[in-house]
Specification:
Elements (H helix, E strand, L loop, with lengths): L2 E6 L7 H9 L4 E4 L8 E5 L2 E5 L12 E4 L4 E2 L1 H13 L7 E4 L3 E2 L3 H13 L11 H9 L12 H22 L7 H15 L3 E2 L1 H10 L4 E4 L23 H8 L6 E9 L2 E3 L12 H9 L12 E3 L1 E2 H10 L4 E5 L9 E10 L2 E3 L6 H4 L3 E8 L16 H14 L3 E5 L7 E3 L7
Parallel strand pairs: 1-10, 1-11, 2-5, 2-10, 5-7, 6-8, 7-9, 11-15, 14-16, 15-19
Antiparallel strand pairs: 3-4, 12-13, 16-17, 16-18, 19-20
Helix pairs in contact: 3-4, 3-5, 5-6
The structure holds guanosine-5'-diphosphate, 6-O-phosphoryl inosine monophosphate and magnesium ion (MG).
Guanosine-5'-diphosphate binds next to helix 1 and strand 3.
Length: 429
């Protein structure tokens, strides 16, 4: 049974958590392949609002195994806090597994994240300050500590003795920050490792066994294509690979084992942090989107930047990921508008271009070309099928599908589970 990959098609917070939760009802396993506690995935049920950071969004379905894959960077204390908070709300976490190959976020990672952001000054990335970038830098620099290393304190202290002199030098000399002691850190993290030990598995083997047994596996990516370290708005990106290919890598799945790639897009665009955003609105409509969409970061609470749907960046993402289906969320947020715009092209110094430029400073200069569509000025939040949506809303969705060259198979009209409308691929919107 091939796997399904869920990715973000924009700059994050598209509603991947909600879509994962919806599909997890029919799945046997959800795997998180990338990112760290920089992610915040929201699921709203009758029990209230759940904000997941490391735990996969399938965890509310008791029959679903949830796996934190090798590609994730894990802050052990934050994971334990998340588990404890979920348990306190009655969520069963007995089917949660953690890869022994996942890299660990240690306290020097957030310390360096903060210090590096300060040093960047006006060129700061606007990271989530969770230590994500420094942890992934250590991973590819082969200086990382992995979950398996926490399970052997004497090996851990040796590893830290190798790594820490460089960190301490940077922290003390360049940034004037506090340094860390290898033995103390090893003791603290071995204790955290002991608490996590019951969850630790060879996750890629678990995932492959599930696929071999014909189980339905979903890979729930964090972040989004335009934040990808290769294809996003570098350097205003995250440090892992939120593409479908990156999701395969992080989950331990080969590309031939995937048959469905669902990209999640908001019906408009948001972004948190710095970097190019051609369709950004600084006016009353931008504020309306922020207010109606409650566009404040799930992880950091920061106000999200808002703007029109960008079909150029959207199509770029759809192609890069080999997207087979699109979920459009938050259509209801646009209900109040008299007209809606879609960016259908970019102009750079007056010349049309059809893909995001590779250099952020050049991307900043791009001018969006808009198509204006009539709004629908009707409440869509109570719709129970796509057919019940106002004609102009269906036209808007049709146009998005046409521009992305991918069918829209799911439409979100509110945060609740029931506010997700399904349609089969191939049918007109
Ligand atoms: P993720 O990071 O991609 O999982 O997305 P987030 O959870 O960070 O942000 C999406 C936000 O939009 C959450 O607060 C969701 O509850 C909310 N949401 C998801 N789908 C819809 C929708 O269709 N309409 C509305 N109004 N809110 C939605
Ligand atoms: P989910 O999975 C939105 C952004 C940060 C910053 C940049 C780098 O909830 O969609 P980092 O802390 O990763 O080094 O920050 O990436 N960013 C996100 N934006 N949603 C996310 O995750 C994000 N994860 C990171 O705001 O601009
Ligand atoms: Mg989010």
């Amino acid at each position: 049974m091939p796997a399904t990959v869920i990715i973000g098609g924009q700059w994050g917070d598209e509603g991947k958590g909600k879509i994962t939760d919806a599909l997890a009802a029919q799945a046997d396993m959800v795997v998180r392949p990338n990112g760290s506690t920089n992610a915040g995935h929201t699921v709203v049920t009758d029990q209230g609002v759940f904000k997941f950071h490391l735990v996969p969004s399938g965890v509310l379905h008791p029959a679903c195994d949830c796996v934190i894959g090798a590609g994730v960077a894990v802050d052990p204390a934050q994971l334990l806090d998340e588990i404890t908070a979920l348990q306190a709300r009655g969520v069963d976490l007995s089917r949660l597994y953690l890869s022994d190959r996942a890299n660990v976020i240690l306290p020097y990672h957030p310390a360096l994240d903060r210090a590096e952001e300060q040093r960047r000054g006006t060129q700061s990335i606007g990271t989530t300050l969770r230590g994500n970038g420094p942890a992934y830098s250590d991973k590819v620099g082969r200086r990382g500590i992995r979950i398996a290393d926490l399970l052997d304190e004497s090996a851990l202290v040796e590893r830290l003795r190798l790594v820490l002199p460089e960190k301490n030098l940077l922290l003390a000399s360049l940034y004037g920050e506090e340094t860390f002691d290898a033995a103390a850190l090893a003791e603290r993290y071995a204790a955290l490792g002991e608490r996590l030990a019951p969850l630790v598995v060879q996750a890629e083997v678990l995932v492959q066994d599930a696929l071999a047994a014909g189980k339905r596996v979903i890979v729930e990516s964090a972040q989004a294509t335009m934040l990808d370290v290769d294809y996003g708005t570098y350097p205003y990106v995250t440090s892992s690979m939120p593409t479908a290919a990156g999701a395969c890598q992080g989950a331990g799945i080969g590309p031939t084992q995937v048959d469905t790639v669902i990209a999640v897009y908001k019906a408009y665009t948001t972004r948190v942090g710095g970097g190019p955003f051609p369709t950004e609105l600084h006016d009353a409509i931008g504020q309306l989107l922020r207010d109606r969409g409650q566009e404040y970061g799930t992880t950091t609470g920061r106000p999200r930047r808002t703007g029109w749907f960008d079909a150029v960046a959207g199509r770029y993402a759809a192609r890069l990921n080999g997207v087979t289906e699109v979920a459009v969320t938050k259509l209801d947020v646009l209900d109040a508008l008299e007209e809606v715009r879609i960016c259908v092209g970019y102009r750079l110094d007056g010349t049309p271009i059809d893909a995001p430029p590779s250099v952020a400073a050049v991307y900043e200069r791009v001018e969006p070309v808009y198509e204006v569509l009539p709004g629908w000025r009707e409440d869509t939040s109570q719709a129970t099928s796509v057919d019940e949506l106002p004609l102009n809303a269906r036209r808007y969705l049709d146009r998005i599908a046409e521009l992305l060259c991918v069918p829209v198979t799911m439409v979100g009209v509110g945060p609740q589970r029931r506010q997700l409308l399904h349609r089969t691929a191939g049918a007109a919107v």
